[in-house]
Amino acid sequence: MKQVDDNMNNKNKKAVCILSGGMDSTLSSYIAKNDGYEIIAVHFNYGQRTEHKELECFRNICIGLDVKEKYEINIPFFTQIGASALTDSTIDVPIGGIESGVPITYVPFRNGIFLSIATAIAEKHNAEALFIGVVQEDSSGYPDCTDTFIEKMQRAMNQGTKEETKLTIVTPLVHMTKQQIVKKALEMDVPLQHTWSCYKNEKEACGLCDSCRLRLKGFNEAGVSDKILYVTL
Asked: Does residue 229 fall inside a structural domain?
C-alpha cells in the first residue's frame, strides 16, 4: 500500500520550469520531466532581439514535453531601461569573441525577476520545485547564474511566501560545460534542433555572438554537428 501511495505522490509532484527556448533551459525541463515532475512551463517575452524565434521554440518544446499548463509572460520594461545589447537596439551585440567580466549582453537582474514571477506561479499551483537552466562554469559571466545567487534567491522566495510553500530551485546544469550539456541532451533525446541560442538573428544564427560561440564550442567538443542554420557556417 505504501508503494502505491508513493507512486501516487510521484505522479502529483509539480515543477515550474523557466523555459526560454534555449538549449540549457530545454535540457533542464527534460530532466524535470524525467524526474517525474508535472511541468508548468513559463516563458518570458522581454523585448529581446530574438523574441519571436524564442517563443516559437518554446511552443515547439512544450509540445515535445507534453506540457499541459504553460505561461507566456510579457515584461516590456526591460526595453525601457535598456542597458543591455539584448534589449536596447542602440547597443550592438558583440561578435569579437567571449568577453571578460560581465558582458554588455547581461540584462540587469533578469534571472532574479524571472525567478520572482515563477515563484508566484509555483505558489498558485502548489509546486515544490522550480527548474532553471543556469550554467555557472561555462557561461558568459552573468552574476545571476551562480550558485551563491540561486541559494540566496531560494531563501528569499521561501521567506516571502506562505508558510506551507516550500520551494526548491533546481539547477541541474549549473556546474556542467556546454560539451557535457550537448552530450546529456543527446542521451535524453532532447530536440536540440528546436532550440535557439543566438543573440542577434532569428532566421539563421550568427555564429559569432557569445551565445553562438559557446553553443558551437559545446557541439564541436562533443563531436557532433548542430542542426540549426548558421549564417557563417
From this structure: no
